[in-house]
Specification:
Structural class: alpha/beta
Strand order of the largest sheet: 4-3-2-1-5-6-7-14-9-12
Low-confidence stretches: none
Shape: elongated
Number of helices: 5
Number of strands: 14
Mean pLDDT: 91
Largest sheet: 10 strands, mixed
Distance between the termini: 16 Å
Radius of gyration: 18 Å
Length: 210
């Protein structure tokens, strides 16, 4: 998915992006769904407005609450975080090609939670997460991803039993089991695409920008 082609962008309430790619995704979006307090960051940093604001609304400022009162979607249950609530709201409206920004930084525990959620989201939608340095793509099954020579690539598995075979990467993966998250980090693309073949999973793939 080209981030600039994404009609729906979810802005999480982590560190607001400063990189060109996530900012361009926000500017080109047909609709921006803000997670609660992320609304204030969006307006303050870009002058853009949210199509909808979703969450328990506990971190939404009074000014934004009043200004966007017709765009508020309050979800009080506490079993999921605001990113999950925004994701569910998008699916309920038939928006299933999603780009997520602002989901990393600030608190490391929130970052880890959001990355693990990305893997779950991939079972129901086409989704990517953009950061200031690159992007995460969840892979529920074998996948071929566009790349460029010299691109830094890291692969993470949430299941240590998965065996992964790769083509197009500098350091061979030939039936490797990712018993630890670092096992397949810091690899490098050596072609204009690379392929990951595996059963089980899912995997989470990080690629740096050009």
């Amino acid at each position: 998915m080209n981030p600039n082609d994404a009609k729906t962008v979810i802005l999480a309430n982590g560190q607001f992006p400063t990189g060109a790619v996530p900012l361009d995704a926000l500017r080109h979006a047909e609709r921006i769904i803000c997670c609660d307090g992320a609304c204030g960051k969006l307006v303050r940093e870009t002058g853009l407005e949210p199509a909808w604001i979703v969450g328990d609304l506990d971190s939404l400022g009074d000014e934004d609450r009043s200004r966007f009162r017709s765009r508020l979607i309050r979800v009080d249950e506490q079993e999921t975080n605001d990113l999950s609530k925004a994701f569910r709201f998008c699916l309920s409206n038939g928006w299933d090609e999603l780009v997520i920004v602002g989901a990393t930084g600030l608190r490391e525990d929130h970052t880890l939670c959001n990355l693990s959620l990305l893997v779950d989201f991939a079972l129901e939608a086409s989704v990517q997460m953009l950061t200031d340095t690159g992007w995460f793509t969840p892979a529920p099954g074998s996948i071929r991803l566009p790349s460029f020579i010299g691109q830094q690539v890291s692969i993470f598995s949430f299941d240590p039993a998965v065996m992964v075979y790769a083509e197009g990467l500098k350091y061979a993966l030939d039936g490797v089991r990712f018993t630890r998250w670092w096992r397949a980090a810091l690899n490098e693309a050596c072609a204009d695409a690379f392929k990951l073949v595996f059963e089980g999973g899912p995997l989470l793939v990080f690629q740096t920008y050009a």
